[in-house]
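Good day; I would like, with your permission, to put a structural problem before you. What I wish to show you is a protein chain and, alongside it, a tokenised description of its three-dimensional fold. Please examine both parts with care and let me know of anything in them that strikes you as inconsistent. Thank you for your consideration; the sequence and its tokens are set out here:

***
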Amino acid sequence: MACGVPEGEQIHPQPGMLHESTIAWTVGDPPRLYSCVRDARPIHYRLDARDCLTAVNEAWVAEAHAAPEPTLAAPSVLGRNLWQLIHDFPVRHLFTALFQRLRAGEVPEAAYIFRCDTPAQRRLHRLRITPAPEAALDFESAILAVQPRPPVSLLDSATPRSAEFLRICGWCKRVPLAGDRWVEIEEALAHLDSLDRVPVPALSHGICPRCERTLLKLLDQPAGPETGIARFGEWHSA
């Protein structure tokens, strides 16, 4: 079994998708190779019918403290509405539409792959969302693979921040340059003067046009013929 994906839960099967030690993932650019992570403990949390957090597991708490994100640690995070944490309108719209499909029973599950980086690692996560009783939704976020890189202070929450904001895509972790060209942070560092100064800009999470188009396709497509699961993410052989 590769990449810690449990039996019966493989991601959108394609020839050569999984490899014993490495995988490649792309959202349109040449694939990047990642080292698979095995036996990583998934993060679980639940939203009630009002989209308020009602439960998180210990893996959530550990991740929140490691970030560090003390305001997202239990018990202070419990009862908070999801929309207090997501401010970007296109992202709110996409999640609202996806939640409506799940709660209406149009699809039994939604799953997609996204980047959840640390300063010294690019990380691929898989998020699965399933309906629960009383219009609640259960979430499982599991790390699949990592790729080391030189530390990026812009992604370190301990780095001092200025009053400026820099948009970053919550799915592919790219940032925009002039002409609405979205690039990896390392490339942006060579083009944006504001990233060379301390304090650095605060990050404003949104969604880039490419990822937005892909997610809109996810919302429009019917449930998969084999699994009934709507999926997002492109995987390629290593």
User: Anything to note?
Assistant: The CA atoms of residues 207 and 233 lie 15 Å apart. The chain has four helices and 13 strands.
